[in-house]
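Please check this chain.
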Amino acid sequence: MKLTRWQKPESWNVSPWRRVNSFRDEVDNLFNLAFGRLANLNPGNGQEAQLLEGWFPAVDVYEDKDNLLVKAELPGLRKEDVEIGFQNGYLTLSGERKQEQKHEDAETYRTERWQGRFHRTISLPCRVDADKIKATYTEGVLTVTLPKAEEAKAKQIPITVS
């Protein structure tokens, strides 16, 4: 589950629609967390305990005047294990972290590193130019750069004196 730092309401310079989109993302993540793993649950292999915890990479979304930047933590994955999709204003990150090796002759004392499939869908706050989206993967961090569409960029409007 994602924790958000508290901010004073008077310091929010975000439109109400953007806050609604953010709330919708949080509700989607909650439902994915609780119900998304049901389809992949195999009784008897220890996954029952992971049902309400899930494996979702941490994601940050930044916006500047020209781009949206999405950064996702995916340590231990190869770029071949990650898929990126974009459709109708939603960025989708999915992939799989595979088990490194089995320890059949050892008793497991603690397992905290998640494995298996993950799927994150992020609604974007503005239109982007889909043909110019780029992704890089460095030291376990995926960075997706989504250039804003021209109509989404802020425009300076000159004032004329009459």
User: Anything to note?
Assistant: The chain has one helix and seven strands.
